[in-house]
Write a structure and sequence with these properties.
By secondary structure, this protein is an alpha/beta fold. Helices cover 28% and strands 11% of the residues. It folds into three domains: 1-75, no CATH class; 78-164, Recoverin, domain 1, CATH 1.10.238; 171-218, no CATH class. The protein contains seven helices and twelve strands. Helix 6 packs parallel to helix 7. The protein is globular and about 55 Å long.
Length: 245
């Protein structure tokens, strides 16, 4: 609350009672991460509003604070390449800068080997960040799209799922931006009471999937990455290969 005494626990405060929130002020624009991360089993709306979890739209660098759990610092979790990219893209521009790629590079280097059947797959990243940036961006680019980032990771044997659904029925996040710069937190269009209006109060036309915002070339790259993953898992079917939308 404005003009109130700051809470001594700051962003790590877990007292969400109305009386406490009215009496003490808390940092704005940053949310506490659930200490259980992707292992959290709680699905009630109140908990999901009070804490952020891996894959949430506002699970982004500078917007989430990680507490300690049993004396151990909680760290960001990434279920997919898209999650990692989004975490390093806090302004939702759809691109990451050289500095943001450096953050992603640090996370990529911390990823453990993955198991592909009986074979342990160890990521083969370039030895230095400069070499990595040169490989993925060259001399001309100042920013990377998600497709470029995903192709770099896949070529480097990073076995995280791509994390973008290219099939029908993909989530269409609300892209509405308020005058102050904030964005609507709605992650998928749900028909409201009014025609062509989402329950979040914004029009159907501003709800756009991640894939729909990509160029044809970017979609084609992601299609190839998905086919490669399907071939590794043995789930590739001829009728599942469709042209990019």
């Amino acid at each position: 609350a404005m003009g109130c005494e700051p809470c001594s626990r700051g962003v790590e405060c877990t007292d969400f009672a109305d009386a406490h929130r009215a009496r003490f002020s808390h940092p704005e624009g940053i949310t506490l991460a659930c200490q259980y991360g992707s292992k959290c089993y709680r699905k009630n709306l109140q908990h999901l509003k009070q804490f952020v979890h891996p894959g949430d739209r506002n699970y982004r660098m500078g917007m989430v604070h990680f507490p300690q759990r049993k004396g151990v610092q909680v760290k960001p979790e990434f279920r997919s390449l898209r999650d990692l990219f989004n975490y390093c893209d806090p302004d939702e521009s759809g691109n990451i800068s050289r500095a943001e790629f450096h953050d992603a590079w640090d996370f990529l280097n911390d990823l453990p080997p993955t198991q592909d059947g009986e074979v342990q797959v160890v990521p083969r990243l370039p030895d230095t960040f400069e070499e990595a940036w040169g490989r993925v961006a060259g001399d001309d680019r100042t920013h990377l799209t998600f497709a470029q980032f995903a192709r770099f990771c896949t070529d480097s044997l990073i076995r995280l799922p791509v994390g973008v659904d290219l099939a029908e029925g993909a989530d269409r996040a609300c892209r509405f931006q308020y005058a102050g710069g904030g964005r609507c937190p709605c992650s998928n269009f749900e028909q409201g009471e009014q025609p062509n209006m989402c329950r979040c109060g914004h029009k159907c036309s501003v709800h756009i999937s991640d894939t729909a915002q990509m160029s044809y070339e970017e979609q084609e790259i992601l299609q190839k990455l998905r086919r490669r993953a399907d071939m590794r898992s043995g789930t590739l079917k001829l009728d599942s290969i469709a042209a990019p939308r």
